[in-house]
Amino acid sequence: MPDRFPEFRLGTVPATSFTATLTERRGDAVERIPVPQRLVDWLAEYGLVVASCTPAQLERARKLREAIHTALTAAAVGDVLPSSAVRVINDFSTHGRASAFLTAGNEREWRLGPDSRVEDALSVIAADAIAILAGERSGRLALCASPTCRAAFFDSSQSRTRKWCEMNTCGNRQKKARFLAGKAAVRGPEHTGA
User: Fold this and answer.
1) Is the pTM here over 0.90, yes or no?
2) 159 pLDDT exceeds 60?
3) Which residues contact 63 (CB under 8 A, 6 or more apart)?
4) Least confident of 4-18, 49-63, 105-119, 179-193
5) For the chain, percent of residues with pLDDT exceeding 70
6) Long-range contacts of 45-50 (CB under 8 A, 24+ apart)
7) Residues 6+ apart with CB under 8 A from 153
């Protein structure tokens, strides 16, 4: 894929990673699946291989993404899940053809058939969101501490105190800002141009 597209933020949890296909939601938003082929590429990263994607399917995928983000955000702060978001997630979950298989490592793996469509892959992502929202995963649902990001992520660290969706991006950006603010405070206003 050409370098003109932003890199994916891939994690181990498909539903939260899917919401990360739109980042910096409270700043200069970055769309990581701007064209149908990028959705095909993203799905393949999670073993959900589909042959193609239409613009209409991409729009439906974005609708699911936003419903999952809305529901995960509400759950992370302890609010009631918006019924409209739950309805969208449930709808997508029931409209796909995917099969769960048990791997040699005793883990569930989703598989799509050779003639699978985008809707089949999206049903897997919706089912993953349902598992998170139903409390079936071990860990803590949290929101990124970055004021421009606020991405929902699943914290499965031992301490359950992770603050950033990704340390390499949001965490480093915030640490750098604190460092620079500390340096400016030590130098005083005469060095800041104030």
Assistant:
1) no
2) yes
3) 88
4) 179-193
5) 85
6) 45/8, 45/10, 46/14, 46/17, 46/124, 47/109, 47/110, 47/111, 48/98, 48/110, 48/112, 48/116, 48/120, 48/121, 48/124, 48/125, 49/112, 49/116, 50/112, 50/116, 50/117, 50/118, 50/120, 50/121
7) 11, 13, 16, 20, 141, 142, 143, 144, 162, 165
